[in-house]
Amino acid sequence: MASLPTATYHWQRLPIPMGQDNTPQLWICTLQAPVAEVAGNKWLKLHSAIQQRKPGQGMLSFGGAFSNHLVALAAAGQHYHFSTIGLVRTEQLDTHNPTLRRCRELGMQLIALDRISYRQQQLPEFLARLKITYPDYLILPEGGSDLAGAAGVAQLPLLQTPDGDADLLCCATASGGTLAGLIQRYPEVRCLGLPVVKDASLADRIKQCLPPTSSYQNWQLAEANSAYGKVNAELVAFCCQLKLHYQLTTEPIYTGKALQLLSQLLQTGSLSGVKRIAFFHTGGLQGLHGLYYRRLLTEAQYRLLLS
Ligand SMILES: Cc1ncc(COP(=O)(O)O)c(C=O)c1O
Fold first, then answer.
1. Residue 189: C-alpha distances to residues 111, 158, 182, 207, 220 (Å)
2. Where's the Tryptophan synthase beta chain-like PALP domain (predicted)?
3. Does the CB atom of residue 174 touch ligand 1 within 6 A?
């Protein structure tokens, strides 16, 4: 397949009073993908897999019932004319779930996987069986986080803000591929993962997305302040404030939660010495529909955040 068109990037400075004295500049980098629904980090992560796909080959991957990754893969499949299968961590496929409905509209075949089977997705026997069942599909891991996915993220020019080079690069971190991309692109620059999951294996997952012989020393993970998907009133209010005051659209599962954690780190002085932060806005806004569907957002909050 011919190489894919490149994304464009938009920078916004957030004049956010996040810390006390010597507050660093905070720049948000948003990616505008050529295919709108393959948004944020997904465009970069899926890039090489889409290009490596053999003619006629489909793509299969894994995700939760509100997965941004599955919607992005389904949208890529529709746009570039390949078939897609999503193995969804759920007992039963909910036909009203807006994320799953969108995946189906985009032509993805969905298959429910119970939690126990889902956890086996990386086991060689499980993958071998999957390859036999779906011989015409390229299998991608959950979140598209693997060596190729991280190498795609390494194309992101996150260092150069409009005001000069950043000295701290950060992003929301869940399966680790996005941070791994930043780490390898800028080995001399400090990279900070802002975890949106409580996962003791996260550091190892990041290492698995880095070239095996590498030993990067330029990164660390902040301590997560809540489990994956946990959304409370304070977090939703934080996202609404970002929208109201700075016209920055976030959602509380990934980007909003990560920015809230960054704000806490700045307020407690944990990032002293940092002068300019570049934060990668990883997308995920389709998740707002699922949050409203689960009544985790009021109608007013949903409309504000979507606007
Ligand atoms: C919107 C969004 N932001 C951030 C992340 C976290 O990225 P990663 O899984 O590469 O750590 C994800 C999950 O892939 C996501 O959907």
1. 41, 11, 9, 17, 11
2. 40-283
3. yes
